[in-house]
Structure formats: structure tokens, C-alpha cells
Amino acid sequence: MVDNNKLETISNLFEGKEIRSIWDSEKEEYYFSVVDVISALTESNNPRNYWNMLKKRMTEEEKSELSTKCVQLKMKATDGKMRETDTLDTAGVLRLIESIPSPKAEPFKLWLAQMGKERIDEIFDPEIAMNRAIDYYRSKGYSDKWIEGRLKGILDRKKLTDVWKENGITKNYEYAVLTNEIYQEWSGMKANEYKDYKNIRKESLRDNMTDVEVALANLGEIATRELAKEHKPYGLKANKEIAKKGGHVAKVAREDMEKELGKSVVSKENAINYEYLDMDKKGLLKAENN
Q1: Long-range contacts: 148-157, Cβ < 8 Å, 24+?
Q2: Could you say which of 39, 64, 106, 160 would form a disulfide bridge with 59 (CB–CB 3.0 to 4.6 Å)?
């Protein structure tokens, strides 16, 4: 999935520069063209050779972990043909920036240092992180009432995962399985299918729900939490059964509301200001600003 336009990804750092990227829907991660990043940050007339020399240098210094993390993916070249291209995920690109000895890379390194300082400050004073989240949501046009509900939903979700942890759930994929069980029951879709339905990728699903959808999602998780506290299931299989029951509580509420409204409350509506449009039949997509 190719993204040639500015989205809220690392591409925003490279003002006026084209950074080709591919979206991996299974891993829910962007992969960025290494030579495009190097071209944007150096004076090199041949960014491909620059990258080869950088890889050689890192290997000699026994710092080859970056090059080994490269994934070769097909991207559209300037001649219009699809060619194998070295790519890195977001973390890899940030590491790449740190490895480039170029004056153009210095502002990015300062930005990374500032980001690191902010995260350290948040460890000492978590309220900083909360204020940052509130400011971000306000900048996106969310109301204070919505933000208040969103923060409460995050806390309720944490209470649920705490109960799951007590009931023997420890692996990330297990939390995802149980969450999908709740979503599947009340919405008819797993979380990733729900994202596809709303035409979003790495964006938060909850941030792109209507208030009714958020209420149903919260209800399903709260019901699951209370049922799990009452019945104390242990292990993934037993907790899946409880998660399905919790999702069913939200399903009943959804069906009752839809019966009265005469329409579905599961919406394709999202809160992003861009959309992903099919380019061709090769599975390639591009993003366009609205």
C-alpha cells in the first residue's frame, strides 16, 4: 500500500520531500524508502550509493543491526516501474537519521533529543503526558466532553486488562484475541476489520468512532470486566467465552437501539482529514488530503 502524500506519519518531518511509504495492514506499520530519506537529508547526488557506503561502514563498526532490519518491498520508481526498494519501519528510520553525519540531519536529531527529554519528563510527572493528550485532541477539534469520555474509556480499558492479567492473560496477542472477541460479538467485525470498514490504518479505532459506537465498545468491555471478576475464568480459552458474553451485552444494546432508530449505528464515519483511495488492482493505495 503506497502513500505518496503527507499523512500523520514520519513523512511529515520531511517538508516538501517525497518519502515513498508502504502500509503493511497485517503488522499495522508503515515502511519508508531508505534512499528517499537519505536523499532528503544529505547532499548526495547518488543516495543509493550513499546507503551502500553507510551499510558497509556500519558493518565494519559492528553496527549492522539497522541494515539487517531492512525489508525489500516493491515501490514505484521515477520511471513508473515497480522496483525492489530497501525500506525501514518508523523506528528504523529514526535510527537511520541518527546514523547520518550530515548538517541536514541535525534538526531531526535535535527533534529526537527533544522528544526523548519530553518522555523522560513525563516519567517524573505523568500529568504532562495527560495535558499533551488533551491539547492534541483539542487541536483535532474534539470537544472537552468527548475528551473526558475518551480518558475515562482509557481508564476503564486499563481496569479490564488488569483483570485479564489476574486471570492468566500475559501476552500481547492474547489481549488482542480477547478484544477481537468483544468487537466481533457486538459489531460483527474484528478490530482490524472495523478499521478497514472505516478506512483507517494506524489511527486509533476509538478516536474514529461515533459517540454511539464508543458507548457500545465501552459497554462491551465493562460487561466483560464485571463478568470476569464474577466468574474468574483462567487462561485464554475461558476468558474468550467471557469476552464473547460481554460483547453480547453490547450487541443486545445495539440491536435495541437500531430497532428504535430503524438504521445501523455502526458507521463508516471517521475523524481523519484524508482518505485512502484504491489506485489499481495490485493492492496499491495512495492517500489524498481532503
Answers
A1: 149/211, 149/214, 150/206, 150/207, 150/214, 153/206, 153/214, 153/217, 153/218, 156/218, 156/221, 156/222, 156/225, 157/221
A2: 64
